[in-house]
Amino acid sequence: MRTILTLFLLLGALTMPTAATAATPAAPAPQLTRLSNGLTVLIQPDERFPLASLRLYVHAGSTYETPREAGISHVLEHMVFKGTENRPKGAVARDVERAGGYLNAATSFDYTVYLTDMPAAQWKLGMEVLKDMAFHPTLDPAELESEKDVILAELQRGEDSPDNRLFQHMQALTLNGTPYASPIIGLRETIKSFTADDIRDYIRRHYQPQSMLLAVVGNVNPAEALAEAQRLFGDLKNDASVTPPAPIDAEKLLAQPLTLIDGGKADGGKAAAPASAKSEKAAKPAKTEKADKSATGAAPAPASPVPTVKIEPGPWNKVYLGISFPAPGFGDVQSPQLDVLAHLLGGDRTSLLYRTYKYEKQLVDSISMSNYSFERVGMLYLTAELDADKLDAFWTALTVDLASLSASRFTAEDIERAKLNLEDDMFRAKETLPGLASKLGYFQFFTGLQGETNYLRGLHDVTPATLQDLISRWLRPERLSVVALTPEKSQTPDLAATLAKAWPAPARAGSDAASAAVADKTEVIDLGKGRTLILMPDATLPYTAVDMVFSGGNALLPADRQGLASLAASALVKGTLPTPQAAGAKAAGIADGLDAPSMEAYQSDRAASLGASAGRQTFSLALRQPSRFNDDMFALLGQVLTAPAFADAEVARERVNQVAAIKAREDQPMGLAFRHLTPFLFPGHTYGYYHLGMPEAVQQFGVADVRGFWAQQVRQPWVMAVCGQYDREAVIRHAKELPAPDAKPASLSAPDWNKDKGLDLHLPGRNQAHLMLVFPTAPLKSDDTPGLELMQAILSGQSGLLFRDLRDEQGLGYTVTAMNWQSEKAGFMIFYIGTEPGKLEQATQGFKDVIARLHADRLPDDELRRGKNQLEGDYYREHQRLGSRSSEAAVLTSQGYPLAFNKQVVDKAAKLDAEALRALARKYLKVEGAYTVRVLP
């Protein structure tokens, strides 16, 4: 359940008995008020940032729908953006974004949530907009017909994603006969059938104050927030009673009756359409739901004590395999226990399945397991991605392991590590106001605040005996569903026969207060010899983020070594050699060195992480850890930099992983487009390198190549930025002990642009086409950068010019946006849309029409204000996390920019007028000079 835990609340039951924790300022308790109409108001003051996050939860999602209404919750979520009684079309998003806020909504199985993240001074506007969206949508019939095309495009986009497609198959098979078997986004035929009156009827039945929660978190006055909530929501009336939903008995959900396809391979029946891209698949709900027997009272389908196995060939490069079992919902006491079991099996790199099949046997590219807990039922979900020629060996071994699985496979240390990391995931969500608002609101909405304490208690009470009971009770072959998405031309083994032999089903089924990184607190310390240390104290949470950025990366590579820097980065953190003379390593207990599994365990035991990555002109390492482990993690960092093992077996593993990542990326339309974009734009230049390289070249790299690259890289100048809680003197001491550079920083010349203007890429078997118009602009240090950022903000967003024109007005696609990319030597702006192949010409003309208006007319003042406020709001939202601040500081300083560079860009953009933006559009947005990149089915 690691994906679910980000939704949970930790208010004080989670304690860390350390000095760092003791020093953390205590947050005031949330204020809970139930209005006379039953609507609950939760207010949590938090003055860390000049922001406020608001959430309005409605107890209505896809499981509330009748079969004829499949997808109506999601359609309503779309339609609230198309105009309200108080705001015409486009004004909902425009009002929020021009105030510097962020607006969105999400539909899940058991609820819909409307959200705004606002500058603190504008929280009242955010609350008013939430009320307007939920209670006063206009639901114009013409707009509904237009939006249906957008939603159908979204559905098609989901079908093109193997991960989405796999989840929807598993959902339909595992939860067959329950409301959770249907896709959140709905079906083509139901989506097309909806009328405005259908949606109004749905609202009348489900959008009642007694079924709602308003959460307000941030820099607000609680009394004022409650008074405003009472003013806006207090007079709303209920017109129906609410009955708590009945839990679904997961032990009665057995596999669907087995049918045969593909020459005798098992098939579980017709798959449901993919869920909404906005759906929260990892929701952890539970509590009141209005009863609707036509939607929620269906009995589970008749069971057969046989596993379900479905094979679906498709246009994939890899096999995407899903395995799932029904599980109890969130309200069950076993839910946190199953979270521990799922984490032990596939929660991280120390897990049993990862160690066995990814690390040791090297049969998969990735493997993971999660416990998905919904309001009334759940699903244990295991996924793996692998090459088709490894499927037989993997499946044979996995079925044997599952059949013989015992809690004795997990040590006491394994179990405690899983508990720590699950607990830690919950605690870290408090780092940002949106994260805190979602946790507080979600927990209160479904379980009450005490539910979090109960969850943690259940987590901590897990023992080996508990795990054995869970394995015996829930991991049963008669409840197993399997789906494999396979490459069309691959030979697929008989998975059903292998499963039946290794794990036969039984004959009968049954149940046995400080602001973040304030400028006057930040220190920049020159350590000499090309070493810079930046200290950014923040005592809000007992965590530390460290980013170390070297000059170098791809800039150190010749053209025939593309991908080597990325390979070195991944291999760098896969083990160390002994460092018997290093005092820090001795104190941390790692002087003898660490192999890859020990290194993963070392980090997991500390709820910490150490990663490395290579960029076009940089090479970075990032540490994230609870502050009490700072000394241990700095010791590990020092050992990684000075004594990386680069073991033959690990380099070989990472080489395989990198080739697999290339293939997986090219299975996704946008992954394919962006992988080939800069090589197309800048041929022969470092900017045009394939970041992961080409598969045939990567397969030739050996240990000597990796060591040779690292010998160059470690000599480059570096910058280290540390943000969070830390001992200042200790950090300075650690930094001084790290290697001192002795080489000049890598440098690059400006790239030449490709003379060819068009690139067509192909992904057969997909529904949608993807179009990018790419306009050359200016490097990051250009005086035009503030204007380009402002232009991008005005063009993108739900109230942006592109969205309004191509999606709202013409219904050409689900995603329409603009992106601004700038680096030291070049820059470009992208106009992007995903649409139907037959609408590419219309989409291209739509882009041209927007550009023509930008050339001809000055932007209205409202558009300028919206863009400027959006830039400022985005800046603060993006700077909440410790890691975002440390990373920004290290990257900017390493490239010669001031620490305040990004804020200066925002401030300069705020001073630009409409004429400056028109001049900028005429200068850079030239259709005749644009590059066209298309991904075609």
UniProtKB/TrEMBL annotation:
Chain intervals with Low complexity compositional bias: 294-308
Start and end of every Peptidase M16 C-terminal domain?
A: 193-422, 733-871
Q: Where is the signal peptide?
A: 1-22
Spell out the family assignment given in the record's similarity comment.
Belongs to the peptidase M16 family.
Keywords (alphabetical) are: Signal
Please name the GO terms that the record assigns under molecular function. metal ion binding; metalloendopeptidase activity
What cofactors does the UniProt entry give for this protein? Answer: Zn(2+)
| Record-linked SUPFAM superfamilies | LuxS/MPP-like metallohydrolase (SSF63411)
The Peptidase M16 N-terminal domain is annotated at 41-186
Output compositional bias ranges, type Basic and acidic residues.
278-293
Q: Do the record's keywords include Cell membrane?
A: no
List the GO biological process terms. Answer: proteolysis
Q: Which domain of life is it from?
A: Bacteria
Its name, as the record gives it, is: Peptidase M16 domain protein
- Which Pfam families is this protein grouped with? Peptidase_M16, Peptidase_M16_C
